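In response to reviewer comment 3 from the previous cycle, which asked for concrete evidence that the modeling workflow produces usable outputs, we include below a single protein chain processed end to end. The sequence was submitted unchanged, and the resulting structure tokens are shown without manual editing.
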Amino acid sequence: MPRQPRVTRSDGDATRVRILEAAGRLIARSGYADVTSKDVAAKAGVDLASINYHFGSRSGLYDAVLTEAHRRLVNLDELQKLIGSDLEPEAQLYGLFKLLLTRTKQPQAWPISVLGREIFSPSSHLRTLREGEVEPKLSLILKILENMTGIPERDPLLLQCLVSVAAPCMMLLISRKGVSPIADGLSQVPDDVLAEQLCHFAVGGLDAVRKRYKKVADDV
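The workflow returned the following structure tokens.
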């Protein structure tokens, strides 16, 4: 009896991607709690053994989906390239806004829905995502804000700056999912214009914080 050909690495990678895509879309629509491994296998066109082979378990699959979702929204390599560039901090911040806005227009937008579900109804998986993806990227973004304000990364005030900078951007991301009355109007605005607007307001606020921080430091 002739031997069956071995599955190549590319075939295995393709199967893994297909499972991730299927799981991502199902979880974005129904939530992790209501999606079974059987559901994912059926949508991906694979057997249950393939899920266990590539991800170890349903829990491992969800960790991988969250990681993939975050990487599609903000890629660490892209961030490192941006921060390591010769651009001024303001231009780096603009580049970050532009990157995020561009990603939300991609046809397969399940990553935003999956991450939104996990953020608003956190599970134990959020810690894995935070340690593996969020914290390394957050450190790079804080470096931009530190360079713009002179506030050390470990100072809680810089985290407050991050919240202020991120909040309007998150509002835009959510609005593009069609859950905001401003979604239709914003859909007509080019990404570079929105990014410039976000950056303009962020720079103004950060400059005000920088001046106040410097004044307090000088008075001590």
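The first helix runs from residue 9 to 30. We consider this sufficient to address the reviewer's concern, and the full set will be provided in the supplementary archive.
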